[in-house]
Amino acid sequence: MSLLEVQNFHVYYGSIEAVKGINFEINEGEIVSLIGCNGAGKSSTLRGLSGVVKTSGSARLNGHELLSLATHERVQNGLVHCPEGRGLFPLMSVRENLEIGTFFRKNKSGIKSDLELCFSLFPRVKERLDQLAGTLSGGEQQMVAICRALLGQPKILFLDEPSLGLAPIVVAQIFSVIKILNERGATILLVEQNARQALKISHRAYVLETGEILFKGTGKELLENNEIQKSYLGI
Q1: For residue 226, with 0-12 CB atoms within 10 Å meaning exposed, 13-18 middle and 19 or more buried, which class applies?
Q2: Would you give the distance in Å from CA 89 to the centre of its chain?
Q3: How many C-beta atoms surround the C-beta of residue 235 within 10 A?
Q4: Which among 28, 61, 156, 168 would be 20 to 30 A from 179, CA to CA?
Q5: pLDDT tens digits along 159-187
Q6: Quick check: 24 and 213 in contact, CB under 8 A?
Q7: Coil, strand, or helix at residue 116?
Q8: Residues ≥6 apart with Cβ < 8 Å to 217
Q9: What is the C-alpha separation between 168 and 190, in angstroms, rounded?
Q10: Is the full-model pTM beyond 0.85?
Q11: Contact 160, 87 (CB under 8 A)
Q12: Using CA atoms, how far apart are residues 231 and 235, in angstroms rounded to an integer?
């Protein structure tokens, strides 16, 4: 059985239908990417599954329906979303932002070891613990946002545009960390404008266009697809 199974999934902004009845699944231990142009419905899919916009259809995590749950209940069930734009509290310290990630944890005993994992992945975060989050660089803020999400003990981690606006050296670090997390067993749903990099690290991917899935396949298959190359990879 799939870890996350999404069927006939729609997302609405008022009367506007942004996602139009898509179906996809994610197996435990996979990195699955959603790629497509701006406005294709990628981030809307994550926002809908997280419970922050209106939806219809079905989304089952470990066999349990999510769409009937409040947003915080979805987090408690293991769906943790690292949003586009990071969503940090700028007037709170890095330490305080990280503590927010542990709010719904039932098992507090593993927080220390999870923090140490975060610090091993992103040493800069440990150096900035007492600094206000709003004073960090964009790359440092993204590191904190990913760490905060990891501290929520996700069964599935949603990463929305983790490389957006970052310097190439930081982008490389972020993608390296995503691979490391997956090697450690993390299941990840990735939305990323850098389609080439996303496909390189993804087990499977779906291509969205105007709220519908046009293509699906392994990361390798889509990288080698002529139409994908022309439309999304700039070849």
Answers
A1: exposed
A2: 19
A3: 10
A4: 61
A5: 999 999 899 999 999 999 999 999 999 99
A6: yes
A7: helix
A8: 204, 205, 225
A9: 18
A10: yes
A11: no
A12: 8
94/97 Cα distance (integer angstroms) = 5
Residue in this structure with the two tokens 């993390």, named with its chain if needed: 186
Query: What span, in angstroms and rounded, lies between the C-alpha atoms of 178 and 136?
Result: 21
Reading phi first (left if > 0) and then psi (alpha if -120 to 50, else beta), residue 85 is in: left
Q: Which two tokens stand for residue 201?
A: 């690290």
Alpha carbon separation from 197 to 58, 93, 112 (Å, rounded)? 30, 31, 32
Sign (positive or negative) of CA dihedral 203, 207, 211, 212: negative
Burial of 130 (0-12, 13-18, 19+ CB in 10 A): exposed
Burial of 75 (0-12, 13-18, 19+ CB in 10 A): buried
Kindly give, in sequence order, each residue whose CB lies less than 8 Å from that of residue 150, ignoring residues fewer than 6 positions away. 80, 101, 114, 117, 118, 157, 181
Which runs of consecutive H residues, i.e. helices, occur in 134-232? 138-150, 168-183, 195-201, 219-223, 226-232
